[in-house]
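Why this split exists: single-chain examples teach little about how molecules sit against one another. For that reason, every record in the complexes split bundles all components of an assembly together and asks for one structure covering all of them. Below is a record exactly as it appears in the raw files.
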Amino acid sequence: MAEDMTIRDYLARGGKLTSPANVPPRYRAELMKLMAIFVDSELAGAAGFADMINQGPGIKERIAAAKIVMEKTDNAGKVLRIMGDFGADTARYANHHPWAARLDRAADIGTSRGEHDMRLALFNYPLEGWGDAVVMNLLMGHAVTIQLEEFGKVSYQPLAEAFRAILPVERRHAELAQEGLARLLEPASDGRLQASVDYWWPRVAASFGAADSARFESLREMGLRHQSNAELRTRWEAEAADILKGFGLRGL
Amino acid sequence: MARFHDLTVTDVRKTIRDAVVVTLRPENGAAKAFDFIQGQYLTFRRDFDGEELRRSYSICAGRDDGVLQVGIKRVDGGAFSTWANDELKPGDRLQAMPPMGGFFVELAPERARHYLGFAGGSGITPVLSILKTTLAREPKSSFSLVYANKGVSSIMFREELEDLKNLYLGRLTVIHVLETDAQEIDLFTGLVTAEKCAQLFATGWIDIDNVDTAFICGPEPMMLGIAGALREAGLDDGQIKFELFASAQPGRAKRNAAPKHTASTANQTVFAITLDGATQTITVSKDTSLLDAALENAIDAPFACRAGVCSTCRCRVLEGEVEMKTNHALEDYEVEKGYVLACQSHAITDTVRVDFDQ
């Protein structure tokens, strides 16, 4: 039996890795980074949204918000556990950063990350009231769904399985946002929701990352990426614009 | 972080010439921590000439067997497997972390499912655990095993599989595919490739249309071929479970080159960083962390938490000395091998060489 295939070839041909013991060093680093981005974004997202619970206009909205906070925290825990398999101190990790901390609404940081954590850039911006939170959740929720479909294919099987389990939960969060928006629109909209869309749209679009082909190529060879950032973002733009249209709102 | 526990070896039995089944008893009240799920593995550690080696071996016992057993096949030049095959005896102590791994599906006694397992050589160990547990705990389900080996003499657990076939009459099918020994049916000779799988499906030896979940454990090319054939036959990623067996584990880790002691009072260090096969040399202040030094010079070094807890920025010091301020992620044996967290480390010597590729 030809048992001399290198891990590199194996991965390039779609092979799966299954435990920290068979993960090469550079793969390990990229995998850890990918997991940290997810965990930090979920923890920061949940912490930011927690402040919104009491602003929900009714019981139903407050339950939905509380559920989203709980489940995003749980999703972070699912992936953090896998980081723990690689040696990360999971208890310390969950507390090493004030996840609710935010920059100024007007800060313009592009796609850069904060000094201390790996959350996606948009989770550094504060939410401004319930309507703004619903719009952000709708747009980002849909983006996360598309991103998780991509990352559910990663070559590290335990992580792929975690993402596949997380996907329906996050998809439901996007649906809840859509239901929330429908209720907000019943009284005639005064343009504030469109202002929120205008604010969040470019920031969510940026969360798909730059079109860095060399880096993408190396991640693709490791089986950590499949579709390009541009492809995923284009799909999101079309689908999100479509959803907004149903509410009389427009994407950029 | 998982920690190591002591286990006593209660039995060592040869299954074939170059593989042993080791029975273990957790000590010091650790029995609960070793309550495994079928298909999981144990990670052992042992000192060889002053250097700690860690090796993972799959549990081959079923959950209802009442014992903890792993199968260890000798790997050419493999320090741990050779030692286990030649020297390990009842009464010896081993150290292992509690069972890990997700190579299983949740069982449900009321369900009638059909499972398909592929094992190559010693890849049988977790698959044996899965099929024994499944047949015992899901009485309406059935299991087909395709088991690849070089020849008859290298088939681990051959008799045990025969006994299981008799015990679970009609619910367990075993197809032995042998690389070198001719069999009555041509299809069962050769390697288990994508083509071979397609033929097994087409000829009805395997009822692929009714398979709920497939398990594959073996060397890389075999896993790729089988996974390709299963996807071709309509299974999705959620239905295919992999366990890559440890061919990637190196036999014996290389000794680290002795560090050069050239401590000095000057505040600059010449810092050589290897990343993705390329080495860059920069001059930086000794007050700057290795990670910041790299990032400030447009070297895309990996990192995440910057707080010494996640270990994303792990790298290996090949020359010179560094001081690591905090470390909540690397274990002692990694530090002994020269691994440091770049976000927490500062150069002490005038030259430092680190490698992110090791």
